[in-house]
Design brief:
The complex is a heterodimer.
Chain A lengths: L13 H7 L30 E4 L2 E5 L2 E2 L5 H10 L2 H9 L2 H9 L5 H8 L4 H9 L3 H11 L8 E3 L7 H14 L3 E4 L7 H13 L6 E4 L3 H9 L5 E6 L4 H6 L4 H13 L3 E5 L4 H4 L8 H15 L3 E3 L7 H5 L3 H14 L3 E3 L10 H14 L6 E4 L18 H11 L10 H21 L7 H9 L11 H13 L4 H10 L3 H16 L8 E2 L5 E2 L19 H8 L4 E2 L7 E2 L1
Parallel strand pairs in A: 4-5, 4-11, 5-6, 7-8, 8-9, 9-10
Antiparallel strand pairs in A: 1-2, 2-3, 12-13, 14-15
Helix pairs in contact in A: 2-14, 4-6, 6-14, 7-16, 7-17, 8-9, 8-19, 8-20, 9-19, 12-14, 14-16, 19-20, 19-22, 22-23
Chain B lengths: L12 H4 L2 H4 L17 H5 L12 H13 L3 H13 L4 H10 L7 H15 L2 H16 L5
Classes of the chains: A alpha/beta, B mainly alpha.
Pfam families (chain A): Dehydratase_LU
InterPro entries (chain A): Cbl-dep_enz_cat, Diol/glycerol_deHase_lsu_sf, Diol/glycerol_deHydtase_lsu
Protein name (chain A): Propanediol dehydratase large subunit
């Protein structure tokens, strides 16, 4: 039957009014538009898989002869794809490879070998046959490191180093193994990077720190031992956008070697939606372009990749099946045998239900870093423009872990331990600043940082003095060694020893391997000595023993023996 | 005792990795100090400089061997390029990186960099990467 068109002025029903009030309706949604690349993973304009090898060289890939390869095609064909297996792998039906991914009796290394021979279009066809549950099943096997971990954002809307130090201490105590900061005012970087490093030492030892900056500056802070690793090394899926980012696969491959030559852990960054956001997707689907990024990372020989749309999550989030495509990115990075820091690091939705649904695939499967930036500060302080999770979500996160017995790598920490670590971080930074001749941190600031929720709870600093001092850190050539000496001189001997151990790891190179983190005992855990051995029910990583006991603790849990009492 | 060269050591990733824990005797700083000498006392007495907290080319080649043995070909190759780059000063590393950006160099400039890498630093793998870039950049019209 045909409905009568309603007059324009028809009032909305009470139901509609209620639905209109729901936060999800503040989110943006658009129709697919494949011609400009506004399509997640199923575009009529994506190439058809093909490969041809002559004399050990790929001479045709995904329907294009070698003479027409753009620079990504050539880099991928020559450096990422295993020529010795490509013809065999490409002969398999996509669904056969997808079944290998899902089937727990097929080992991770068997899948890695076959996938190593697949072209970008072929990898796309494989994941197009998979629904999200199949992708999650595959991801728990394909994650490189057996034990999942998590990464925090520790930033301040005022670039306040005292706040960042306290937050870094709390974040490491809560379980994060990597802490990332960035700046509102870039010139603040040296002071905030020092604060992040010092603060991390006051919590659980071994959390590695980074400061996201322009490539050359980020490398310099790393070389000085003020930061421990780097991640903001962006790659893109089309040639024009790669060039707009002022890089090529060769410049990025060289940069990867530059980091390794100084013993510094590093991963690349990419994500669906960046090309369409930068206006040149060449009419390809977001996921096809992201697969090219994954293979550039593989070919460059970098150990890992931060992907899962990252700062462009609003783009795939707006189109149908976009969040499925984001999961597929993480799965394919892991299948390329790369460390995967799997997104969940950018404000994504006004709806709590929707941001949780977006998180669950990575949290339930487990990835090398479930969030590549869980905001350890309130989102108003998050200088990466807000994360999918922030410091007000800690109790929800811990409860979800406990409900589902899934390890999201965080834990509940009693108030007195948090306050002690936050205070110690701020005091230690006060002492380090004094030792290094940097602007004074007052006792009032230490006190405020200890009890603060965000930068609004701290006194203002003299920004001009701080910026002058930040410049002097660079001019005077202050390094991680100076921070060690300052900590030791001020009586923070344990923290000084921890930092020395972290920096000594550069000499060994152990942290350069895939998915490497430091344990609280300062031992390296990577995909070499903690390789994922998932092989179906009863195998692989499962939270048990002391870790499961820790996960059972929440802010309010009623005692079994005395219902009047809460156990902390 | 003579210093052991990385190609004379056969590493078993299962028992030798992490090298800091299981094979510390193989690890030296670029200045030749054994890793065990990087103590707090040595830091405080000024016996450890920033250059001591860097990785040596030999260690990178040992780690390349570990990567190869666990099937990570490209990672190993990156470590071998990195081993070559340990000899270059920081500012030269950064300047080569900048030269490799799109539309930043002529073909001749890139060829000169490759020649210098090979001639002055025996960095043959890095030179190969730069030459390859020069060819691709020419074909894709992103030379200066």
């Amino acid at each position: 039957m045909t409905a009568e068109p309603l007059p324009v002025s028809t009032p909305a029903s009470k139901r509609t009014e209620a639905l209109e009030e729901r936060p999800v309706n503040l989110d943006g949604f658009v129709e697919e538009w494949p011609e400009v690349g506004m399509v997640a993973m199923d575009s009529p304009y994506d190439p058809t898989p093909s490969v041809r090898v002559a004399d050990g060289v790929i001479v045709e890939m995904d329907g294009k002869p070698r003479a027409e390869f753009d620079f990504l095609d050539q880099f991928i064909a020559d450096h990422a794809i295993d020529v010795s297996v490509t013809e065999h792998a490409m002969a398999l039906e996509p669904v056969e490879v997808a079944r290998m991914l899902v089937d727990p009796t097929v080992t991770r290394s068997e899948v890695v070998e076959v996938a190593g021979g697949l072209t970008p279009a072929a990898l796309l066809e494989v994941v197009k046959t998979m629904n999200v549950v199949e992708m999650m099943q595959a991801l728990q096997k394909m994650r490189a490191r057996r034990t999942p971990a998590n990464q925090a954002h520790s930033t301040s809307a005022r670039d306040n180093p005292v706040q960042v130090a306290a937050e870094a201490a709390e974040a490491s105590l809560r379980g994060f193994r990597e802490l990332e900061t960035t700046l509102g005012v870039v010139r603040y970087a040296p002071l905030v990077a020092i604060a992040l490093q010092v603060g991390a030492l006051a919590g659980t030892p071994g959390a590695l720190t980074q400061c996201a900056l322009e490539e050359a500056t980020e490398l310099e802070l790393g070389m000085r031992g003020i930061t421990a690793y780097a991640e903001t090394i962006s790659v893109y899926g089309t040639e024009p956008v790669f060039c707009d980012g002022d890089d090529t696969p060769w410049s990025k491959a060289f940069l990867a070697s530059a980091y390794a030559s100084r013993g510094i852990k590093m991963r690349f960054t990419s994500g669906t939606g960046s090309e369409v956001q930068m206006g040149n997707a060449e009419g390809r689907s977001m996921l096809y372009l992201e697969i090219r990024c994954i293979l550039v990372a593989k070919g460059a020989g970098v150990q890992g990749l931060q992907n899962g749309s990252i700062s462009c999550i609003g783009v795939p989030g707006a189109v149908p099946a976009g969040i499925r495509a984001v999961l597929a990115e993480n799965l394919l990075a892991s299948t390329a045998d790369l460390e995967c820091a799997s997104g969940n690091d950018q404000s994504f939705s006004h709806s709590d239900m929707r941001r949780t649904a977006r998180l669950l695939p990575q949290l339930l499967s487990g990835t090398d870093f479930v969030c590549s930036g869980y905001s350890a500060v309130p989102n108003y302080d998050n200088m990466f423009a807000g994360s999918n999770l922030d410091s007000t979500d800690y109790d929800d996160w811990n409860t979800i872990q406990r409900d589902l017995q899934v390890d999201g790598a965080l834990r509940h920490v009693p108030e007195e331990e948090l306050l002690a670590a936050r205070s110690r971080a701020a005091r230690a930074l006060q002492a380090v600043f004094a030792q290094l001749g940097l602007p004074t941190i007052t006792d009032k600031e230490v006190e405020a940082a200890t009890y603060a929720h965000g930068s609004q709870d701290l006194p203002m600093r003299d920004v001009l003095e701080d910026l002058k001092a930040a410049q002097s850190v660079m001019d005077r050539g202050i390094t991680g060694l100076d921070v060690i000496k300052a900590l030791e001189a001020a009586g923070y001997s344990d923290m000084a020893h921890t930092l020395l151990s972290v920096l000594r790891h550069r000499v060994s190179g152990d942290l350069l391997h895939t998915s490497a983190i430091l344990t609280p005992e300062l031992e390296t855990l990577s995909a070499v000595n903690d390789a994922n051995d998932y092989a179906g029910p009863g195998s692989g990583y499962r939270p048990a023993g002391e870790r499961w006991r820790e996960m059972k603790r929440l802010r309010h849990v009623v005692s079994a023996s005395n219902p009047e009492e809460e156990i902390g | 005792m003579a210093v052991t060269l990385p190609d004379q050591v056969e590493l078993d990733p299962g028992s030798d990795y992490p090298l800091a824990a299981h094979r510390p005797e193989l690890l030296r700083t670029p200045t030749g100090k054994p890793i065990d000498e990087l103590t707090m006392q040595a830091v405080l007495s000024g016996d450890v400089a920033a250059e001591d907290l860097r990785i040596s080319p030999d260690t990178l080649r040992l780690q390349a061997q570990v990567a190869e043995r666990v099937g990570r070909t490209q990672l190993a190759r990156n470590f071998r390029r990195a081993a070559e780059l340990t000899a270059l000063p920081d500012d030269l590393v950064l300047s080569i990186y900048n030269s490799l950006r799109p539309n930043a160099s002529t073909k001749q400039q890139l060829t000169d960099i490759a020649d210098r890498l090979e001639g002055e630093y025996s960095a043959t793998l890095c030179a190969e990467l730069v030459r390859e870039a020069a060819d691709v950049y020419e074909r894709r019209d992103i030379l200066a």
